[in-house]
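Reviewer 2 asked us to include a model.

Predict the structure of this chain.
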Amino acid sequence: MVDNKPAMNMPELLVFTKPLISGFVLAEVWRLAFYLGGNFAPSLSRINPWLVAIGILLVAALCVVYVFNRGVHVIAERMVRSFRLDLFIALAVGVWINILVSPLFAKFHRVFQSAEPHWAPLVLLLLSATLLSPLFRYYFPKSRRRDHQLYFLADEEIDNEAEDLFESKTQAKSFAETVLASGAHGGLIFGVDGPWGIGKTSFINLAERHWAKAEDKVIVCRFEPLRYASEPDLVERLIRELSAAIQRTVFAPEFRPAASRYSRLIKGKADFSFLGFRLSLEPSQETVDELLDDINEVLRRINRRVIIVVDDLDRLDAKTVNNVLFATRQTFKLSQATYILCYDTEVLAENHEESSRAREFLEKFVTVKLSLFVDNSHIRDFLRRDWQRIENQLGSIPSDTMVKLGSVLTELSNILDGDNAAKYLPLVGDLRKVKRFVNAMLLMQIEKSDLRRTDFYEQDLINLMLLHLHYPGLFRRIYAEETEGRKGIFSVHREFGEDEFKNSNEFSAELGEHPETAAFLLKQLFDVQTLGLNDATGVEEGVLRSRACFNEDSFRNLEGYLKLIVRVATPEPRETFVLYQEAVEKVRGGTSVSSILESPDFRLDQGEHAHDQFWRVLVNQSHDFTDVVAEDSINTLIEYLPRYSFISSDDRSLRQRSIYSLLRLLDRAGWGRTSGHRLPNSRDNIVEVAWRIFGEQSHQSKGILQRLTNDDRGVLGWYDLMLFRLQCSADRQGQLHNLHSALIVYSDRDAETSGLVSSLAITGMRRLSQEVFSLFKQTFIDPRRNFYSEALAVSDKELLGDALFASLEMDSGDAREGEQMPTDLSEKLSAYRNYFRSFVIYQLSNTSPPKGSGVGCGYYDANGSADCAGIAAAMNEYVFNVCFDPSTDPDNVIHFVNHCLCNLSSPFMSGRFEEGYIPTKSVSANKSAPVAGN
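Predicted model (structure tokens):
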């Protein structure tokens, strides 16, 4: 084989010109400084020699420190290691020339020789200040107070292996070693292919750390064409970057002139205008190959290979990409250069009209291709664990914020661990996308809210956030259609009378109009089949209140999600279902109900809504309570009844609803309870409900009937009792089968608990009605206490309850009980007093059989099972002989008149419009029914 030696080239005159001129200038500066110092030397004789020495040392130290910080010593070392004696000779020649021509500057030198002596310290002082200023700014930078700000995750590449979260260091090391071992081959191009955000730049950074260990063999040049995309000539910029990289590493003065000639040759003829004449400069007659040979020779002489990394190629437009590839192609003959291109094939193919040809072009252009992938497990590990590491840049975010992010990130990792993981990868398949998601959560100011205390279903929140980030147009449409009380095509609906949820027809058509990933997110959010919501009867309340697909009048869940993302609006804890669900779980776990109701979230001075929702959720989930939990729940509900308002804002007040909650609690949890399991609902087991009501067996002296009418509960306690008794009637269809059966079994052990409802109601209500009348007789009839008078004496606070009274007290400026109430409220309270006393007396006197509204207490006798309305007769006698008797109290006449006026009939019912309101027969003549209203 013939060894082709490179041809000997002409020396670069510019390379030798610079040291020549430098030597001449240095010699001249030394001469002038010597003249000025000689003039000032006599003045130093009068100064203490020690002070002079200290001054010289300080100036010398200043110069040394400045030179060291400027890196001059590194450059000098580089020059010495280059063994360029020819350049040192040129420097010496420059000094010699200065000596030879010094007579020509004699007149100029005499000016300095005869200069005023104090010019020397002045120049020295100016020079010292010039050097000292940058040193002072370097060592004593001005400290700036950092104001607290909201932190986000920056999309920055990693620089060392400690920051490597995806285990790329092994692959990066192998790649770096492969590049080093590839040798010097002209036109060798490595391709690093991967989608945006996969970490191509980080991968190259890790590889570069391995190349840095072989700095005596390679020089790494990082070229980022995106920074210079607007420049017309990327070839010149590439040559300039390459030259700067080489100059930073080795001393090669010939490289810059050769690179400049190459750049001028590539650009071609240069035109310029001078004094109105347009002139053209033709490049030298050297060919491209000859110039590349010169550059290659320089690289060969310094014994270095150059690794040129072209990053972010896929971020450029098609024209700029072609320019970069052209610049790369132009330097293929550099045998000492190895190219590494970082790009995404799919993006580059999209930028070309013919994607297949673009792919073929890349395959021919790139010699060795490496594709980067991120394992799904690495993303999951990051979301579950690695985000807590300080090294991963998340340390800039306050720890309390990151703790609140934990639940969302964990849920996202669970999604990526599920069957749909592959469909989520286009959205969160790399660290860049994950950071965007985290930043979006931070922008929601998640540290100011606790999602765990809301009804938001985290997977739905994640899906909506991904729609918001990747498909903003679609998200804006959902927001426009499903907020401000509107219901659009996205949320599910259920027609009246149907037992299944449905999607709108428009929603099905909408799925086909969006990309596959967007359609997938829509299905995960709203599709009834995907969510398994076909059967509406089997959907639990927790699902109805949490899933984003619901946006009905009573469950505006989707609007809540959208407001959270767009307006950072979180619901109040008392408005969420999760607050009550967690409270019930605490009760189930052993926490007393009273401690729950006394906690800050349930304070009655903030309203009764929290108590109302708590009891509703607790009763609905009471089927698996143990005996201890059931006992505590029943007792606490009875204790809190007097604290709830009797005034209703809608159909019933909380006090009335709590009575029915008590009945349901008895029906579900008031029997067959043990510390571990529940007994079957046999006759022997369910009779415990009756024992609780009447205070017998293990519940002796704790009967509900007696507790509801204790003296400390006042007359309103009798309203609670009568409402309790009325709701126990089987004909009212109260869905209290166990309670109804218990009352029947308690009345007659052998009676049937199934059959005709009216018969069951009569049997079950007999003992209960007789016991209720017995208590009333002992309390009011026997001691001849006037129930009507005592009802009028019920205080406003008893009627209003703790919550409403506290609210009125605050509004009226700390009003106290007994102070004058507003007129309209006072009239309303009077009406309620008339209502509840009429209700109690009517229920005790009512002789109606079971027809769907309950068996009247007056239907029964005080004893026995003849059911001849003996209780009604006794009540009539009590009302007319005690409550309405003016001989006992003259004010009793007012009770009678008030009773008559309250029971006037409307002419609309009788057809006698000309007579106005008239008294009915039951009021004026029939004493067996003193009250004609329910």
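The chain has 43 helices and seven strands. Confidence is low (pLDDT under 50) at residues 269-285, 814-819, 906-918, 920-934. We have added this to the supplementary material.
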